[in-house]
Structure formats: C-alpha cells, structure tokens
Amino acid sequence: MTVLQELIGDQSLAVWIVLGTIGFLLTWRGANIVESTTSKISDHFGVSQAVQGGLIVAAATSFPELAIIIISVLVLGDFGVGAGALIGTAVFNILVIPSAVTITSGDTTTTQGIVYRDAIFYTVAVLGLFGVIALGVLGTAGQQRAQITPQMGVGLLVLYGVYVVLLVGGKSGTSDQKRAESTNVPKQVGLFAAGLAIVLVGVESMVSMTVQISDALGAPPFLISVTVLSAMSSFPDLLVGVKMGKAGDQRAAVANVFGTNTFNLVAALPIGVILAGGVSISFLTSVPLLLFLFYTTLVVVVLAATDFELTTEEGYIFLAMYVGFLGWMTTEALGFTTLLTEETLRTIVE
Length: 350
Known about the structure:
Blueprint: H1 3-8, H2 13-44, H3 49-61, H4 63-76, H5 79-105, E1 108-109, H6 112-138, E2 145-148, H7 150-169, H8 185-217, H9 221-246, H10 250-276, E3 279-282, H11 283-305, E4 309-310, H12 312-334, H13 342-349
Antiparallel strand pairs: 1-4, 2-3
Helix pairs in contact: 2-3, 2-8, 2-9, 3-10, 4-5, 4-8, 4-10, 5-9, 5-10, 5-11, 5-12, 6-7, 6-10, 6-11, 7-10, 8-9, 9-10, 9-12
C-alpha cells in the first residue's frame, strides 16, 4: 500500500485517476525544474553539450523513473511495478521521442559518436540486462523464475560506470557557452532539490493510480505500469527532446534518448534490485518484452546509422511501432492475448 492510500483510504477509481493526473502534472513540473537547473549548473562549469545531453540531462530527466523504482520497492513492496515502468519507458523513449523530434523538427542527422558509442552501448545495456536475467534462472529450481541478486545489480551499475567513462573521456570537458556570470549556483541547487521533492510527490500519486487501475481491471500491475505509468513518467523526456529539436539541437535530443535509456536499465533498475535485497522475476514473462525492446533498438540503431540520419518518414514508422506495442499490452491486460503468461511460454520452452 502506498503512502497516499494510507492517508486517504479507499476511494473510487475516478478519484484515483484525478489524483494520478495531478501527480503527472507535478512530475512534469518537477522534472522541468530538475532539467533546467542541471543544464544551468552544467553550463556554469563549462560541461560540453554532448555530455549534458547524453549523461547529465539524461540522468536528471530519468529521476521520475528512479523515483518509481524506489517507491515501488521501499513503499509498495512490488518490484514489478517499477520494473514494468522502466521497460515501458525504454520502449517509449526509443520509439516516441525520435519520432516526435523528426516530425516536429524535420530530418535529424546523427553522428558516428551517437551511433557507435551511445546507441551501440545502449544495445549492450539491453543485452547485459537480458544476460543478468538469464543468469538468474541458474539460481532457481526451474525455468519459470529468475533470481536477481544485489551482486548482479552491482554488476549492471559497473556497466553504467563504463558508459560514463566512455562518454566523458571521449569529449572535451569545456563548452563554448559558459554563463558563470549569470548563474547563481546555490539558488540552482536549491531549486534542483525542490524539483526532486515535487517529482517524488507526483510519482507517489501516479503509482497509487496505477495500483488502483490494476485492481479495477483485474490485470497485473506490471502490465499497467509498462503502459500507463511509463508513458506518464516519460512525458518530461519527450518534452525535453522536442524542445532540443526545435532549438536546433536535434543530435543532443537523440543522444539524450540513448543516455536516458542506458541510465534506466543499468542504473535505476539495479538500484531497485539492491534496495530490495534481490528480486525474483518471471523469466518467461520478461522474455517477449526484452526481445521486443532488443529488436526495436536494432531497428532504430540501423536506421540511425543509415546515412547518419533519421527521416520524418522513419519517425512515423517508430510511432506506428509504439502504437502496436500499446495495442499488444492492452490485449494482454484485458486477457485477449496470452503471450506474456507463463503457461503459454512454458509450452514454447518445453
């Protein structure tokens, strides 16, 4: 039970949807504050735009997802809610954000650095997560469950550390747009902390709404979080990407997508595993989602590497793929399809 549920008790689903919407608006506002303050502080210290987009802003805009995994583990006691949100966010970011950038700003050029470092390393992160889950099966009696230990979580964090080293080491630490004279660092730090607090309150409301929708539909919370909660928490990332694209910084917007997803999968997710003291997840249920995420990533990477450009037409393809993903998850939640059920997949494995 979430803190909000304990405070206000049983309410109708309509009330929870209203509270979740308010939480979404708070999360949106808080994430904007966090993104703005981190950008100003980074500019003050002369951090390059590439490092800002791929690392600092990516981590800052991912705070809603980090808050979700922390609340789901420490407050709700259900790792699946946070894990579903992170996987759904990864799918949303890799498909919807590049789509929105190309549709609103036109054809978007990429670079060798974005493709061969950020995109490829993100692919490695997906495979690393897949590998950890596969290894987790070895610690169980059967193929149905995967036991992910805190040590495995630390291993994924090390992988993220490698990404940070590659990103920072491969770029100059200076920027041509320093604004030391006009940046009040203590004020920005205070605003940053306030933004984090606002995000936490907003995320608490959204998680509570997710649980209530799950109960009303009789669907697993994981499926609701992988669709509804992930889309709501990813909206600030979408706005940041569109804003960057319209400002003429389309490359940074694309780099931010890969940086955000890398942070979510090999930083935020393992933090949840460590806080939970290890988790047990359904291996057979996670297989289709991870495969979808992997092949979706390959499609985006290949198209980004083709002439180092993402076209508007390709953006519409990405959007159609995400609509298809939502349709699939909806049919799973309503019980019309059973690709994510253990019974179906067990038959396939056996």
